[in-house]
Amino acid sequence: MSSLDPDVVPASKFQDFILGHWGIENCLHGVKDRFYGEDKHACGDDWGKAWTILTSMAVSVAKLMKKNERTLKEIRERAALKPEETATKLGYTKNTC
User: Does the predicted TM-score (pTM) go above 0.85?
Assistant: First the structure.
């Protein structure tokens, strides 16, 4: 079901819209929901926007930190077990002052 006019939008273009939507759902929203429970949060508008930004940042940082891990869970576990390595990889240096 769609509000798109079939006389204006051909079936092939409609299919592109649908596949594009599910590509985003599977590649980003599915990951955010699986690992950060994004769909379970019932936040107000401001908190909801902040939560979305924070979970997007967390996924992006995890992808930057990927080493030999296959999954986001493995990346998060390594980051938790080796926080110094994680901080160094993110550009943190100890302040000697």
Answer: no
Q: Name the token pair of 77.
A: 């576990």
Structurally, the chain folds into a number of domains equal to 1
Quote the CA–CA distance of 22 and 31 in Å, as a whole number. 13
- Predicted pLDDT of residue 87: 82
Domain that holds residue 77: 11-89
Which residues in 34-48 are b (16+ Cβ under 10 Å) and which e? ebbebeeeeeeeeee
Q: Buried (b) or exposed (e) across 52-85, using 16+ Cβ within 10 A?
A: beebbebbeebeebeeeeeebeebbebbeeeeee
**Residue 1 lies inside a defined structural domain of this protein:** no
Residues 32-74 have pLDDT tens digits of 777 777 777 666 777 778 877 888 888 888 877 777 777 878 8
